[in-house]
Amino acid sequence: DSGVTQTPKHLITATGQRVTLRCSPRSGDLSVYWYQQSLDQGLQFLIQYYNGEERAKGNILERFSAQQFPDLHSELNLSSLELGDSALYFCASSVGNDQPQHFGDGTRLSIL
Amino acid sequence: QKEVEQDPGPLSVPEGAIVSLNCTYSNSAFQYFMWYRQYSRKGPELLMYTYSSGNKEDGRFTAQVDKSSKYISLFIRDSQPSDSATYLCAMSALSSGTYKYIFGTGTRLKVLA
Fold it and tell me: What's the average model confidence in pLDDT over A49-72?
């Protein structure tokens, strides 16, 4: 058990909808990272927050947004969903920027 | 060209074999190197973390980094069927004041009993 908790485990929705994925980092970790994993793209870094502030941005679409709250949990919002957004979404956390990341078990998003 | 290249496999070996997994990269700015193991339907699990050239050993696992050749390896000794999983290399670099994090696409390993 990595200590990183993601909810929900599975999400099924339709095109055009909006969903929110939630992540609770390990106790003591200030950084939260979001990744998308699909079969053809591998694990793609989306965005990082450190202690409530955005720190790094990867290949995140404009339809996606994230935030980290004062209690350090984070949410990833995906809107105007398309079939191609179907993937596993992982959250990871670490103590700091250059420290190893520990991953949750992901949310499997299926767009019908 | 991808910044990180990793052979997808699958790689099948008999139980007890020494396994060698490799990644090459093109960006010399990468400073931190990691290996993760991912079982089906689970999140990646950190195996090794290093930031310098050379070898780092942890139990049956040895991570090797050669920054001059832009090449990293993970060796698994006395491989077990429970080692069957996908292995991901990962690396990070500080670029223009922010970090970038890149993962390889993973190598599927199957250890046969």
Answer: 95
- Portion of chain B with pLDDT greater than 90, in percent: 78
Determine how many CB atoms are found less than 10 A away from the CB of residue A112: 10
Residue B89's pLDDT band (cuts 50, 70, 90): very high
Instruction: Inform me whether the C-beta atom of residue A56 falls under 8 Å from chain B C-beta atoms.
Output: yes
Compare CB distances from B43 to A42, A100, A103 and report the shortest one's residue. Answer: A103
Q: What is residue A47's predicted lDDT score, i.e. its pLDDT?
A: 95
Q: Quick check: A91 and A4 in contact, CB under 8 A?
A: yes
Q: Give A15 to chain B, closest Cα distance, Å.
A: 24
Q: What angle do CA B68, A44, B58 make, to 5 degrees?
A: 50
Interatomic CA distance for residues B11 and A5, integer angstroms? 31
Nearest CB among B49, B99, B106 relative to A42 is that of B106
Q: What angle do CA B68, B62, B81 make, to 5 degrees?
A: 135
Q: d(Cα A62, Cα B15) in Å, to the nearest integer? A: 47
The reply to whether A98 touches chain B by the CB within 8 Å rule is yes
* CB-based contact B37:B60 (threshold 8 Å): no
| CB contact at 8 A, B36 and B63 | no
Residue A37: other Cβ atoms inside 10 A: 20
What are the angstrom distances between the C-alpha of B69 and each of A87, B22, B27, B64? 34, 12, 11, 12
